[in-house]
Design brief:
By secondary structure, the protein is mainly α. The protein is 69% helix and 1% strand. GO terms for molecular function: protein dimerization activity.
């Protein structure tokens, strides 16, 4: 397990950094998959050698891998279905690796990869060093409701003018630290009016990580709010319970008096809170 976690450690660290490391992080996803596959196919011998040295060092009994494996709690009179080798290799090691593969594939499918790379290539760090029009346009094609085929053509020309403008001529864009700074600078310099489609794309790139995290938080909260004891909640009540639970920081600044006054003003009631 330590070996598998070590393979994905660099990937975890990369995704905790800012968006300028997303491109490298997506490369690390492929690296992690390749190393996991190599461990699955050829890593058994070296892994067993390492584990055996550990067992000898701490005086731990090493099983004979040719002996039948008996599950704890099952009568030894029953015929064993496999030996120790099959159990630890196929049932334990390969199964854990397959779980890791499944998690990586679910988290980083083709659409997610294109989204993350599109965000990364918009980043203004190091004077737009990683800017790539073709890869940014792949991100745009994932939003057909916001960018039709005519808008994509216009965006392509805007991106060509935009990158020459901000990278080669306008020094106000030379020291930006992220997409947030880029968005502010576009508004300050009125370039959001000159390149409206580029500005729309930057806003999408800013909203994407927040929206994804909010959806995950909403589903996690739903498991706590809508339990088996109250699974007949209507949509309005469920929404009313979920929003304050998810946005705790925002609602903590609202006084109880304001909540009671709002509730009281919704309609005439016999009693007052």
């Amino acid at each position: 397990m330590c070996t598998i976690l070590a393979i994905t450690n660099e990937l975890n660290v990369a995704f905790q950094k800012k968006e300028q490391d997303i491109a490298n992080a997506m490369i690390l996803v492929r690296v992690a998959k390749d190393r996991l596959q190599l461990l699955r196919e050829k890593g058994w011998a070296s892994l067993i050698d390492e584990v055996s040295k550990f067992c000898i060092k701490y005086d731990i009994l090493i099983p004979n891998f040719d002996e039948p494996y008996v599950i704890l709690g099952i009568s030894r009179r029953r015929v064993a279905e496999c030996n120790f080798f099959h159990h630890y290799h196929a049932v334990v090691l390969c199964k854990i690796i397959d779980w890791q593969f499944q998690e990586l594939n679910n988290r980083f499918d083709e659409v997610t990869t294109e989204l993350l790379l599109g965000v990364a290539y918009l980043n203004p760090v190091n004077v737009f060093q990683v800017f790539d029009i073709d890869k940014i346009l792949r991100l745009v094609k994932l939003y057909p409701d916001d960018f039709d085929k005519y808008s994509i053509v216009d965006l392509h020309f805007q991106l060509e003018n935009y990158i020459v403008d901000v990278r080669d001529h306008d020094k106000r864009f030379f020291d930006l630290k992220g997409l947030g700074d880029l968005s502010k600078k576009l508004v300050e310099t009125k370039k959001h009016e000159t390149y409206p489609l580029v500005f729309r794309l930057v806003k999408f790139a800013l909203l994407l990580p927040v929206a994804t995290a909010t959806v995950e938080r909403a589903f996690s909260a739903m498991k706590l709010i809508k339990t088996d004891l109250r699974n007949r909640m209507d949509d309005e009540l469920l929404s009313g319970c979920l929003v304050p639970y998810i946005e705790k920081e925002l609602f903590s600044n609202i006084s109880n008096e304001a909540i009671m006054n709002t509730f009281q003003n919704m309609k005439t009631r016999r009693g007052e809170l």
